[in-house]
Amino acid sequence: MNPLLALVALVSLGLSLALPVVVKPLLKRLGVIDIPNDRSSHTTTVIRGMGVAVAAAILAALALSLATGLVAVDRSLILIILVMIAAAAALGWTEDFRGLSIRVRASAQLLVGALGTVALATTIDDSSYWWVPVGAVAVATYINAANFMDGINGISGMHGVVVGLFYSGAGVLSDQLWLTVAGLVVAAAFAGFLPWNLGRGFVFLGDVGSYLLGASIAAIAVTGLLAGVYLEYLLSPVLIYLADTFTTFVRRARRGEPVYTAHRQHVYQRLTDTGLGHVQVSLFVSVLSALTGAAGFVAATAPAPLAVSASLFAAAVVALYLYSPRIFRALARRRVPAEA
Q1: pTM, to two decimals
Q2: How far apart are CA 158 and CA 266, in angstroms?
């Protein structure tokens, strides 16, 4: 591995591991806490907002990649991604600290996506401003997907690691160093958060962290799309998150339920209701995301028969995930008589 690349990754990992020591007491003093209710997946009051530490780690590592000359080509792409991530994290922090209306949140998310895509379209040769609406919606959509899916310990941290590593690999395969760097930085930062989220006295990312996660992935994906990276590389690792969010949204809309109110109807939440623990469900989601990601990487460049097979495999993995609560519930029912 390039020594500078290794240094940047270690900075991201190290800061994410170390900063919570300082940030945790500050969040406690500011009263940034999560109080459980009947829709929560936890039962004790927990400090949230630790995404501030992860954001600092990602932003510092990306800035270091520019300062050291690691990314000598496409430096502007890293800079645009950095600004988009910082803006989304700031929006999430505001939501954590004082709250924002749905209209303000949605407008700000779309604005971050639109302005970021304008900057990318201006910077990348042979790009087009017709991508601006796509970029705006993509960023807002995935910020909300990450926010909705951030409901159990481990799931967001593992998602950041899995998607970040796949995007880093996509950078290697596409010969785009900026993508390798950005993906590895995100993966390292969320890996550093996991011990704090899964250990004793655990903490939450909060909206600042889930907005950070969603914006990091979406900003990298939109940049990659405009830079000519295969769509399969960018979309396949996030299929499980998108499928869970979309199907839950449609299900609630059909029932006439307010789609933005707190609930426990996501697939991953229903999996915990079958008796699986947080870590088990988070690992399950992450493994399936890795499988769809691998299938997408194969489909991107394989001959047509193999590409179709890989796509069908990815679709089967998504279907398995969507039906998994029923499967695990049935297994639990069979286990009870056997144990009795």
Answers
A1: 0.94
A2: 17
